[in-house]
Amino acid sequence: MSTDGPAGRADARARRARRAFLGAFAVVVGVLAVIGLGGAALTTTQGPRVTHVQVDPDAAATASGSRMIFTTTQSLREVDAAQVTVTPAADFTVDTSGRTVGLRFAQPLWDETEYTVRIEGVAGLGGGPATTIEESFTTPPLEVYLLRRGRTDDTIVRTTLDGTAETVYSHPHIEDFRATAGHLVIATLDDDDRPVLVTTRLDGSGERELTLPGPGTVTNLQSADRGNRIGYTFTDASIGRAGSRESALFTASLSDPAAEPTPIEIEGGDPRVDDWRFVPGTDSLLMLTYDGTLTLATGEGEEPVALGSALAIDGIARGSTEAIVDRLTQHITVDLASADEKPLVAVDAALGTPGAITPLADGSTLRVLAQLDGFTVRSTDVVVADADGEVRPVFQVASGDVLLHTCVAPSGRYAAFLVAPRAVDNPYDGYRLPLPERLQTHVVELDTGDEVSALDGFDISWCQNAPRP
């Protein structure tokens, strides 16, 4: 058959075009392969390089466990904590996975502070030189929440430390509140003076009522450091009748306000709880019952741990499992992870009569010391006491004022001292949690002893529990 016709010439052109395309395609593939191999060789030669850094400065300044994650160009060898420097210093853990290396900060970082993370000796699994990674970020100014009782409405305000405040929630009667990472939980009274527990978002929106164990009174409201778990003690309105509950401990989740609260019961023990605390970073609760028994209630299905007798729980520092407890004869430190205990080092008796003790995450404590003239308090000082009992002053209560409560910021940078000014003419209000009508919260930087703010109101959102009248 002749190929000189139109059809033959078309087939020949098609064959030539296919050969040209295949040749060009082969050249392109070859060039890309060379580029790819060259790029891979260049990446290996240069060592790992950072392509993305993920960090949330807001979360880093307000919550423990925040993360900083570096993504690189190569799968990495394991990075050890000794290779990492954080400036200024902060506790952290480090992990490596594939092309990423991440830091988890143990505690909230200081506000309005530039942090630099430097990782030396970062090497790829495929070999090549090690490199140094360095990145900085700045944490924002701190915001806190405070409760202000008023003549008409009570308000919860969000404020900076310079006193710039906005109301996020108001109600005719607020007894107490706590702030979590994402919610407010607020103890109120309704129009019939019946206790109601509500939760809102941090801006006060999305109000929902939590289910209570029944008609009765809610006291000692607390929230866990992380998550949405809260707890409180509850007393039936029918107290005195057979089977009624008095100061019974319950926990609940803000994720499901309609769910029935969970009773915390110790078999064979006194069900009435005088004081209690969430143990940071665990599902455990430390509770002191009316009969003076101190018990660690652990996770579901686990046996509670008896810790002897006590008069009071002074506190548990955030990021710590060590509780300071007032025994019958002395204050002690109890390691709740092992149940080991040791006496708390006393300070020089000449400094004053000891009062409240507040633990700090580094093992030191805040001590309230009063100078007495008979039964009259002449002055009250707050000092930081180290593990050896050496002290340095951080706050002095003005003459005639009364210190009611001490709370420490989650980062440990500040302490808040709740003071009732001019106590002799500062009458208590008529709330179920009665407090003086005029209250000020003094915020002090603990490293320097400098007062950075004096804010109207109480229950600053750092507090793990309410002031006890």
Main sheet characteristics: 4 strands, antiparallel
Main sheet: strand order: 1-2-5-4
Individual helix count:
2
- Which class best fits the helix and strand makeup? mainly beta
Compute the gyration radius: what is it? Answer: 31 Å
The helicity comes to: 10-25%
- Bulk shape: globular
Distance between the termini: 113 Å
Kindly state the number of beta strands: 34
Could you report the average pLDDT, rounded to the nearest whole number?
90
Percent of residues in beta strands: 35-45%
Q: Which stretches are low in confidence, meaning pLDDT under 50 for 5 or more residues running?
A: 25-43
What does this structure look like?
With 469 residues, the chain is mainly β. The chain is 10% helix and 45% strand. It contains 2 helices and 34 strands. It has helices spanning 6-46, 57-62; strands spanning 50-55, 67-72, 84-87, 92-97, 100-105, 114-122, 131-138, 143-148, 154-160, 165-171, 174-179, 183-189, 195-201, 208-209, 216-223, 229-236, 248-253, 262-263, 273-278, 285-289, 293-297, 305-309, 312-316, 322-326, 331-335, 341-343, 353-359, 365-373, 376-385, 391-397, 402-408, 414-420, 440-445, 450-456. A 4-stranded antiparallel β-sheet has the order 1-2-5-4, with no helix packed on it. Strands 11-12-13-14 form a 4-stranded antiparallel β-sheet, with no helix packed on it. A hairpin with a 5-residue loop joins β27 (353-359) and β28 (365-373). It is globular, with a radius of gyration of 31 Å. The model is unreliable at 25-43 (pLDDT under 50).
